[in-house]
Design a protein that fits this description.
This protein is elongated. The chain is an alpha+beta fold. It contains three helices and six strands, in the order H-H-H-E-E-E-E-E-E. About 5% of the residues are buried. The longest helix is centred in the middle third of the chain and has 90 residues. The strands form two sheets. A three-stranded antiparallel sheet has the order 1-4-5. Strands 2-6-3 form a three-stranded mixed sheet, with no helix packed on it.
């Protein structure tokens, strides 16, 4: 009995010691931790590399898209410039063609003036030419500004050539003479009226 009791604690101590050694073996723990850490690092590195590859693909896609947009815009700009030039030439051609007839009439009137004796016939001819010129230009969008003596001077529409003393106090700051008409082309002001203003 005493021998058994004596042996039992020894056995217990041996088991406890073995357990302690098993748990606290730092070399094995470090080796396991190292492997786990290496696996984590490798996994994270692969994940980062995959992300980098995806971002590179996106960058290349956007670069390609940007190059296409730049090329398309350049083509659009060139095409628009070409169309504008063609439109300008067509508009100029159309205007010139419509004015050629008036030029012909003016040249005929010039020849007639040198030999004509009938002043009334000349006046009628010149009035017809002017009327034809006005209607042709109006058909192209030209419109005369309606500026009259006695109107208020408007700096946005008129250009004051000079100021003169007004004949009456009511004409002070108003238009007292129109030297040149102002004109609109398709409702856009293309020439200010030149006027004399009373002071």
């Amino acid at each position: 009995m005493k021998e058994q009791q004596a042996n039992e604690p020894v056995q217990q101590n041996t088991e406890e010691t073995a357990t302690t050694v098993e748990i606290n073996n730092p070399i094995e723990e470090n080796a396991e931790n190292k492997e786990v850490i290496e696996e984590q690092i490798t996994s994270e590195a692969d994940s980062i590399q995959n992300t980098i590859d995806e971002l590179k693909k996106e960058i290349n896609h956007f670069k390609d898209q940007n190059l296409r947009l730049v090329a398309e815009f350049d083509n659009y700009r060139k095409r628009t410039a070409r169309e504008m030039e063609e439109l300008r030439q067509t508009a100029t051609k159309s205007l010139i063609q419509s004015l050629i007839g008036i030029l012909d009439d003016s040249e005929r009137a010039e020849k007639t003036i040198q030999t004509a004796n009938d002043i009334e016939a000349l006046k009628t001819g010149i009035n017809l030419i002017l009327s034809k010129l006005r209607s042709t230009l109006e058909s192209k969008g030209l419109k005369a500004m309606n500026t009259q003596i006695g109107d208020d001077f408007d700096l946005e529409l008129q250009e004051a050539i000079t100021e003169i003393p007004a004949a009456t106090p009511e004409l002070s700051g108003k238009i007292v003479d129109v030297i040149e008409k102002g004109y609109y082309l398709n409702e856009v002001l293309i020439r200010h009226a030149k006027v004399v203003v009373g002071k």
